[in-house]
Amino acid sequence: MADLLPYGRQSITEDDVAAVTEVLRGDWLTTGPAVARFEADLAAHTGGVPAVSVTSGTAALHVAYAAAGVGQGDEVVCTPMTFVATAATAALRGATVVFADTSPETGNVDVDAVRAAITPRTKVVAAVDYAGHPAALDELAEVAHDAGALLLEDAAHSVGGSWRGRPVGSWADLTTFSFFPTKNLTTAEGGAVSCADQELLARAREFHNHGLVRDKVRQRFPDEGGWHQEVHEFGLNYRLPDVLCALGSSQLSRLPAFVVRRAELHARYDAGLADVDGVATPVTLPGAEPAWHLYPLRVLGGRRRELYEFLRERGIGVQVNYVPVYWHPVFADLGYRRGLCPGAERFYAEELSLPLWPGLADADVDRVVDEIRTFYR
Hints:
Layout: H1 14-24, H2 33-43, E1 51-54, H3 57-67, E2 75-78, H4 85-92, E3 96-99, H5 111-117, E4 122-128, H6 137-146, E5 150-154, E6 162-163, E7 166-167, E8 174-178, E9 191-194, H7 198-207, E10 212-213, E11 230-231, H8 242-252, H9 255-273, E12 279-280, E13 288-289, E14 295-299, H10 304-313, H11 329-332, H12 342-350, E15 351-354, H13 362-376
Parallel strand pairs: 2-3, 2-4, 4-5, 5-8
Antiparallel strand pairs: 1-9, 6-7, 6-13, 8-9, 10-11, 12-14, 14-15
Helix pairs in contact: 1-8, 2-8, 3-4, 3-7, 9-13
GO molecular function: transaminase activity
Cofactor: pyridoxal 5'-phosphate
Protein name: Aminotransferase class V-fold PLP-dependent enzyme
């Protein structure tokens, strides 16, 4: 469709292009100084918590579960209102995923539902900052730690946000990020894992680099030669190259401006849709400073698909985020059934993501609002 207004897109400047070009003209395309610089730049936005850069948000989740030691016989309590990767990567580690229902206000996992889902086998509680609104990270950490589990914050939507005065990335035992083009900053493809615990961080760093052990103190055959390296546990190549890390550092320099602009656009939608019967605008809970990745409008009265098709026909690229994870056939084939989390299923039935990215013009927002108002006349 010509002139489709997408629901999200990257924001690239000449400074971004110059940063990438500088690396291409240098000596290191990967495993070089731009990687360390990007990881340090990211830590400046997560309260100083160190990070390991990886090839995608999905890779970040896989690395985080590996660092946590998730495996056969373990359970991971997870929200169903997320992209499938949050749960799939736990399942790939051999864990049983236990889904906990979500809040009708934010789409984030409900603390009481998490508490009810925990068993002695729970290894990790995985919360998602849906749409960029942080989950109840303080309460979730308490619930997880009381059970002897770790809290994993899937912050794919929320880099640059904060909860109760502390930045996203500083609350959970492990925090994962995604830098896909539609996210709050981009490295084209890419992600990261942040964790304050040095042992977890070392495990994450090792797993993302094939599991290679170069520390002679830990090697079983340290006198083999200067070239020697060993693999003690299987890992994968999830290294993010210097070229993409350079783009990430350039983008991070504008992250505060991105967050502000997204908030402005979000507020403009709120104002334009506040009096429209048949929709509910997103809420912001006390203590949250979201970094809005999505504008998740809720369409009431069973008209979500009708409004979706109406807007698409008019060149407005709305989207739905997300199908409850356990609805996917791969989970259905494992025995999960619809009806498991009624709150999440109701939220899904109503959710419609409106276009939102920093380069979106006020006039574009007004156009979307006008079309929605026309639909309800």
